[in-house]
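SEVERITY: medium
COMPONENT: batch folding queue
REPORTER: lab tech (J.R.)

DESCRIPTION
The queue accepted two submissions in a row. Attaching both inputs and their returned structure tokens so the on-call engineer can compare them side by side.

ATTACHMENT 1
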Amino acid sequence: MRILVCFCLSLLIISQGCTKITTPDNGIFGDFNEAAKVRKLLEKNDERFMPAYKKLISDAGRAMNEGPFSVMQKKRTAASGDMHDYLSMGTYWWPDTTRPDGLPYIRRDGNVNPETEGEYVDAEKKNSMMSNVETLAWAYFFSGEEKYAAKAVQLIKTWFTDSATMMNPNLNYAQAIPGVCDGRGIGIIDLHRINKLIAPLQILQANDKIDAVTREKLHEWFDEYLNWLLTSPNGIDEEDEKNNHGTWYDVQVCGIALYLGKNDIAKARLENATLKRIDSQIEADGSQPKELARTRSLSYSSMNLRAFLNLSIIGKLAGVDILNYTTPDGKSIMKAADYLLPYANGSGKWNGDQITSMDEAIESLKPDFRIVYALTRDKKYDLPGQGDDLETLLFPGI
């Protein structure tokens, strides 16, 4: 009995002996069966994965004491006058100091205006909600601790389904610019990491942690939001973007469509839009010119590669081979990965503009290659050293 109690309480040993976790089928943004293998190895204190697991549990402990988050908590209201409408402001837009009222704002690429963060807009609370839902759901998946699932469900219901606190299913007022516009198509990037929500929803639903009424409301919310993405002026505008914005638009549309069981929408988009983006955004040498033109060129190159990798994972489920597609003139996602590999493994020095921390950009690039290695099992993408990021647990390549 004493051994069993220690087993269940230890931070270093997963508590599957206490709670049976159902592994979801058909992971939209990753293979749940691979994560389940890691869960088994963590029961044996496998040192390859313990740093990432301990960090996950530590982050989950912090998340237990945060939120819930709601669009009703901001101190400004969108131009609609409805507090339920999500509001954010263009990150790189600043007051024009040559004008008394500062209007219209002017763009300083890569320089974040502090006015666009914090309590006056929804962006920071949205980021916290998404990150904490992801952390808590995966902490539940790997530890079996029910408290993490319960907290994740609370955050989801507050943001998406409770009538008093929910966000309206649109981004009409995302990335507004004072003196210029009330919202923009490129504001759709604000929900680009939709995997932080979809994978947790799959985990929680597979384990019956979300009641039937909430499940139906979530389905309705995402169905309305998908229709808004496909038909609204802002959605159509973002679809036409030629850089990472367009790629992440595809991630949202395809990921949500698969979550809703609308596989035909995802398959058609991958075949008709995503493959064209490979041709228009990646050169034969693997460079991404539209990202290299930015003042945070390594960060944006990494960000766009991550979007294409997400679409590769989605493509496996939808029956479209995105990862191995090559244009007649040799452009491909794998070429883009090879172009960035020297900067992830430390063998190359980035010469493009990067006005924010180079070290942070490189660290954010490394998880991309945990995904590349898991998808290809090519040893050259298996970076040395133990990672403590979540991707280490989700894309183990074993």
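ATTACHMENT 2
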Amino acid sequence: FMADRGYINFTAEAVNKALLIVKDFSIDRTAGSGTLTIQLPEKGVYKLTVSSKYKSSVDLVITTNNNHFYKNTAFLGNKTENYRTNLLSLPGYFYVPEGMSRLYFSINNSNPGGKGYATPDDINKAFVFKDNNGNTVKAALVTTNDSALFYLAIPSGNSGSFWQAVKMEQYNLCFSNISNVLWFATKKTCSSTGFVATVESKYNTCITQLTALTPGTEFHWEVYDLSKWFYYDTRVAELPNYISPNAIITLKTGNNCNATQRLGDDEKYLRQKEACASGALIAAPELKPILYPNPSTGIFSCLQDGKPVKFEEMTITDNKGIKLAVLKNDMQINIGSFAPGIYFYSSIVNGLVYRGKLVKL
């Protein structure tokens, strides 16, 4: 805030009902950090408007609680869509409405510093777009008379679905005829999907190995590092020995779930890599037990490293912390009699406590 000035207002209102204001809240220059909770009264479309005055600014982290959060217009002021500062915001998911044949977007820094306008080849090197089937889609100029307006062709049968931008470098984009869904609120990782990165000494060098924690038969890895892509379709993937800690790893499984992380954000992996490089003994990774499948109609198995494991105790609670069940010395739980919804568990496996969330269908 400016000295002696500052004002930011948050207004949430229903789009399809006149004068239904759900929340109207303002802060001034004396305000500190905090949480603003908006309770939506029923299903529908709601609009959040954030207005600032007197050169005010605010950093927002928005948790959507399984609702879709999207923008329906371009940002006003000097804001642009630039996600390069946070590589983990990619892949960015956006929704292509039913029946759409072309998706338009503009490049708002197409001629940076007067060095020449971006060509389609420049844009397709700086961005990678993928359709709902994971196929790469190339951008094309709308007209040679406008070097900043591009489009993606939407094949028949590929609309009405989520697409992705999995790479963004150098240029800033602004979608022209769609709402940018699930980019400002990153798609949530399913609790049953996860992986661990380890280092092994093989072939007289240090090899990075990725292991999916979820059992099954369908695994798809996408690894982006140093402007190169690597793809694997096995539960265990062995990466090239020159892979860097800046590599972005995405695991997709057959249950429409994904998990993304940067290698260098895993301290255990970095310690293993350092130990391998020095010739020291590499410690075995610690794999967190999970309940699978999740969501489920009621039966969940306790797995560790993809194998059944017995828990000493399992406590199930609701979202208010009320204890609903306590199970002991088993490898499976059955909450088939529970109403569909979200539950929480606390398990003890080999003397250690693990917590997580269950989704009962």
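NOTES FROM REPORTER
Residues 75-80 have pLDDT under 50 and may be disordered.
No errors were logged for either attachment.
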